[in-house]
């Protein structure tokens, strides 16, 4: 007796394998199975593998170059770090999710080996989230600083308005 879960599993497997098998069958009927293999298996393995490179050193250098020379990232990187650290301090569960997401995106981009700009697009969503959190933390800190500075007694300065207009407190101001 089959359960509903088994039927869903069979349908999912069929949905995955039937199009692949039909594609292979079509290429075989056109006598182009070699071209299919070359384009989708052989070429990516030769071009995107680490054969003939220094591996991790190239990846790390590419990551550092990308982080330090990117136009937006140089500005937002400190905000992203502050946001990530503040979230981990405030909520370890959500912070660890963001850390894992960021590290997974970094790892995935670095594993591609060629370090083209679009390979780093995977990092943009977690980077945007942590940068927004960092900007929020910065806004909170500056608001706190401003409120502390505002509570200190400072000498009252005369307000200067253009065209000898009157101040709201009844006095007149000069230009």
Succession of helices and strands: HHHHHH
Strand residues, percent: under 5%
Structural class of the secondary structure composition? mainly alpha
**How many beta-strand elements?**
0
Helical stretch tally: 6
Describe the structure.
With 175 residues, this protein is mostly helical. It has helices at residues 4-29, 33-47, 56-69, 71-90, 92-111, 124-151. Helix 5 packs across helix 6. The protein starts with a helix and ends in a 24-residue tail after the last helix.
Keywords for this entry:
single chain; 175 residues; mainly alpha; 6 helices
Short description:
Helix content is 70%, strand content 0%. By secondary structure, the protein is an all-alpha fold.
What is the topology?
Blueprint: H1 4-29, H2 33-47, H3 56-69, H4 71-90, H5 92-111, H6 124-151
């Amino acid at each position: 007796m089959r359960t509903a879960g088994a039927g869903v599993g069979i349908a999912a497997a069929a949905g995955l394998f039937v199009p692949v098998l039909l594609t292979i069958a079509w290429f075989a009927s056109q006598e182009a199975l070699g071209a299919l293999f070359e384009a989708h298996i052989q070429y990516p393995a030769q071009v995107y593998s680490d054969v003939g490179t220094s591996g991790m050193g190239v990846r790390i250098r590419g990551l550092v170059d990308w982080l330090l020379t990117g136009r937006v990232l140089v500005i937002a990187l400190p905000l992203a770090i502050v946001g990530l650290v503040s979230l981990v301090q405030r909520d370890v569960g959500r912070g660890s999710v963001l850390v894992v997401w960021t590290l997974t995106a970094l790892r995935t981009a670095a594993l591609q080996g060629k370090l083209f700009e679009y390979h780093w697009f995977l990092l943009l969503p977690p980077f945007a989230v942590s940068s927004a959190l960092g900007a929020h933390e910065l806004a909170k800190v500056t608001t706190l600083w401003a409120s502390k500075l505002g509570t200190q007694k400072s000498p009252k300065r005369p307000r200067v308005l253009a065209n000898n207009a009157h101040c709201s407190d009844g006095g007149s101001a000069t230009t």
